[in-house]
């Protein structure tokens, strides 16, 4: 989708004055929606400024109160933010686990707060030590495997590591499903060769 004409340009002097005058709407919006000011202010300030520019760029919008344009724009920005945060590539495939739930089920274990904290520290220390070693070994194995791959295969591996789905990968790279599956078969063989030669 093409960008709107007002998005790339800076605010005019008139828009700056208007934005300063209506800045209290930002705090009102954050309070109405019970958002954390520190987290959401930085996320919503750019859409706020875009709403000001949009309001001044399109004359037909000036028959409405600025608040209406403002609230619509920020609702859309908030929705887009959550949509982006909940994409497959940003969500862990195995779900989310907390140390407290793994170690300190108070109903079951009947631990005191101090015992719970000690158990969490022990678990965290064990996981960190183990994963640091595994990360180094895994990284070296991945480097070895990547040396044998062409640029297209390397791009697929990188996108897989970033959490993209198969469909997102082959569509973004503009290749057919059949070709993508053939490349995956080659990748699996290359990785198996490196893993089992070590």
How would you sum up this structure, described in words?
InterPro entries: RNA_pol_sigma_r3/r4-like. This is RNA polymerase sigma factor, sigma-70 family. With 198 residues, the protein is mainly alpha-helical. The chain is built from ten helices and no strands. α2 packs across α3, α3 crosses α4 and α7 packs across α10. About 8% of the residues have low confidence.
Compact description:
The chain has 198 residues and is mainly α. The chain has ten helices and no strands.
Outline the secondary-structure elements:
Elements lengths: L12 H9 L2 H9 L4 H21 L8 H20 L13 H5 L2 H4 L3 H35 L3 H11 L4 H8 L3 H21 L1
Protein name: RNA polymerase sigma factor, sigma-70 family
Organism: Coprococcus comes
Rounded radius of gyration (Å): 25 Å
Shape type: elongated
Overall tally of domains: 2
Query: What is the second-level CATH architecture of the largest domain?
Result: Orthogonal Bundle
CATH class of the largest domain: Mainly Alpha
The helix-strand sequence is: HHHHHHHHHH
Number of helices: 10
Distance between the termini: 48 Å
Secondary-structure content class? mainly alpha
DSSP strand (E) fraction?
A: under 5%
CATH-defined fold name of the largest domain: Arc Repressor Mutant, subunit A
Which stretches are poorly predicted, pLDDT < 50 over at least 5 residues? 102-109, 111-117
| Average pLDDT | 76
Please give the largest β-sheet. none
Count of β-strands: 0
| Residues in helix, % | over 70%
């Amino acid at each position: 989708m093409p960008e709107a004409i007002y998005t790339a340009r800076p605010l005019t002097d008139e828009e700056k004055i208007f934005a300063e005058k209506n800045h209290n709407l930002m705090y009102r919006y954050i309070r109405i929606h019970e958002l954390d000011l520190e987290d959401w202010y930085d996320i919503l300030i750019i859409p706020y400024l875009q709403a000001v520019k949009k309001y001044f760029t399109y004359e037909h919008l000036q028959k409405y109160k600025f608040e209406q344009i403002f609230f619509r724009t920020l609702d859309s920005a908030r929705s887009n933010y959550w949509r982006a945060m909940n994409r497959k590539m940003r969500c862990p495939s195995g779900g989310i686990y907390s140390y407290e739930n793994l170690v300190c089920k108070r109903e079951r274990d009947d631990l005191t707060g101090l015992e719970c904290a000690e158990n969490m520290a022990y678990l965290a220390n064990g996981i960190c030590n183990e994963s640091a070693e595994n990360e180094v070994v895994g990284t070296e194995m991945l480097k070895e495997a990547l040396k044998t791959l062409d640029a297209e295969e390397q791009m697929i591996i990188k996108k897989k590591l970033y959490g993209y789905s198969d469909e997102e990968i082959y569509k973004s790279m503009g290749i057919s499903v059949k070709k993508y599956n053939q490349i995956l078969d080659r990748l699996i063989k290359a990785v198996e060769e490196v893993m089992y030669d070590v």
